[in-house]
Write a structure and sequence with these properties.
This protein has helices spanning 11-22, 34-44, 58-71, 97-123, 148-168, 195-206; strands at 2-5, 26-31, 48-52, 77-80, 129-133, 174-178, 217-219, 222-223. With 226 residues, the chain is α/β, with parallel strands linked by helices. The protein has a single domain, classed as Rossmann fold, CATH 3.40.50.720. Bound molecules: NADP nicotinamide-adenine-dinucleotide phosphate.
Length: 226
């Protein structure tokens, strides 16, 4: 299996790469910094290949799709992990909309762009899976005050997950949203669960059997409310 993970030079993305490689899969570890991608891939071993990919760049998406097509001819798993702006300092009623726009560019349009760019390669894969790394902050049924840029971008990512799952259901492409829980990364800060535990739920969705769920929202392999 060949899996691509975005934002994988640190945090949950890097750990997802480590776990997928440990399961014997070929991993395309992508990061917006070429050096950071190379350093992280180097540490994880020979089945992990670095690629430079800024998810906000249409040119990067096209270049990466072309490179994967030439080298592998297919892709089995896309993990949309990269995200920014857990804006605990903001409230919706006064939020800086430039900050919101920037978050949506990375957290929504990034995954959307990559799904579109990589879909031909995923269609050529044997067991295509798309995992959108979401958050409890995306849950409309639990939505409260605060983190407006982050919450709106992740709620929209969940909506995108539902649409893509429905549109690809007939083709066997499983598309799910996964909340990793509160994880002790740079974004999550200290006190969260170990990164290996957060990443495991993402790996679960990346390696679902062909009769596995699609269009769902999960944490630790269990459904969570939209
Ligand atoms: P993190 O430690 O802040 O890492 C974020 C990663 O995204 C970094 O590798 C970063 O790269 C990358 N990134 C940011 N903008 C990018 C861009 N334009 N193109 C490519 N990569 C980009 O975050 P994390 O905690 O591992 O979070 C991973 C995922 O889990 C995110 O989707 C996050 O929303 C979700 N999540 C996390 C928690 C938590 O408690 N940590 C909870 C719920 C959901 P640079 O090093 O270049 O900045």
């Amino acid at each position: 299996m060949i899996a691509l993970v975005t934002g994988a030079n640190r945090g949950i993305g890097r750990e997802v790469c480590r776990q997928l490689a440990g399961l014997g899969h070929t991993v395309l570890l992508t990061a917006r910094s070429e050096q950071a991608a190379a350093a992280a891939a180097d540490e994880l071993g020979p089945s992990v290949h670095p690629l430079t990919l800024d998810v906000t760049s249409p040119e990067d998406a096209a270049r990466v799709a072309a490179e994967i097509g030439e080298r592998f001819g297919r892709l089995d798993v896309l993990v949309n992990n990269a995200a920014i702006t857990y804006d605990t300092w903001q409230r919706a009623i006064t939020a800086d909309l430039d900050v919101v726009r920037e978050a949506v560019e990375t957290n929504l349009y990034g995954p959307w762009r990559l799904i579109q760019a990589l879909l031909p390669l995923l269609r050529a894969g044997e067991h295509p899976r798309i995992v959108n790394v979401s958050s409890a902050a995306a849950s409309l049924s639990m939505m409260g005050a605060g983190t407006p840029a982050y919450s709106v971008s992740k709620a929209a990512l969940n909506a995108l997950t539902r649409m893509c799952a429905a549109e690809l259901r007939g083709e066997g492409v499983l598309v799910n949203a996964v909340c990793p829980g509160w994880v002790a990364t740079d974004m999550g800060g200290p006190g969260g669960r170990p990164v290996a535990e957060g990443a495991a739920g993402v790996v679960w969705a990346a390696t679902l059997p062909d009769d596995g769920p699609t269009g769902g929202f999960f944490r630790d392999g269990q459904p969570v409310p939209w």
